[in-house]
Write a structure and sequence with these properties.
Helices cover 29% and strands 27% of the residues. By secondary structure, it is an alpha+beta fold.
Amino acid sequence: MSDAFPPHLYPFRPAEHDGVMIGAAYVPARSLAEVDTCLAVEGVAPLEQRTPVLAVGSNASPSRMLWKLEQAGASTVLPFLQVRATDLTVGFSAHVSRAGYVAAAPAPAPGETTTLWCSWLDAGQLECLDATEPTYRRVDAPGSATTVPGCVPVTGAQLYVSRRGLVTDPRTGDVLPLTTQADLHEVLRPLLPALPCGDAPDVCALLAEDAELRQSMTDGLQELLRARPGSADRLVAAGKETR
C-alpha cells in the first residue's frame, strides 16, 4: 500500500461533500442533475451509463479511489453522493488484509437506515474496483437507497460483501460495528491471543510485515465467527451476485 495510506488510519478520509472527483480536483455538486452536467463537461459517461456502488470502507475516500483508478489506468472522473441505504449497517470483514488492517464490510440490519457514500462507476472503473476486491463479491444492495440531497431513489445500487464473513462478538453473536483500527484492537485483544500488544500504527505495521501473523489473526477472526454463528452472514448469501 502507498505510504499515503497508513493502515492504522483505515478507512482513510471520506468525501467531505457531494461532488465529482476529477483527478486530484473535487468539484461540488448538489444534485444528480449537477453531477450529470459535470460529467458532460468532462466528456465521460453520464450517470445512466454508470453503476452506483455503495461504499462501506476506503472506497468512500476520493484520494484512495484516485489511487486505485490511476494504478489501473482507468478514468479518474468519479461522482460521490451521500445516500441513505436501508436494511444494512457496517462492520468488519473477518480477515486481516495484506496492508495490515481489518477492512470494512456491510452487515445485514433489517429495518435500519445507514448513511453511506455512493459512487457511480463506468465500465472501466468497475472492472478496476472488482480487481482490487479479491476477498469480496459485488452484489445487489439488499434494500433501497435514496440520495441525501433531494431524496432521489438510486436504482440498481450494488455493494461489495465479504467472502470471509463478519467479525462478531462470540458472547452475543452481534456484528462489531465499524470503528478505528485502534478501537477494534482494544475490543479484540482479550479475545485473540495472537494480536500483538502496542499502538495501532505498530500493530498494523507488524501485521503488514508478517504473513504468518496475519494468517493467525485471520484464523482467530474466523474462530470468533464460528463461535456463535447467527445472522451475520445473511447478506453474503442474500444478494444476487453481479460479477
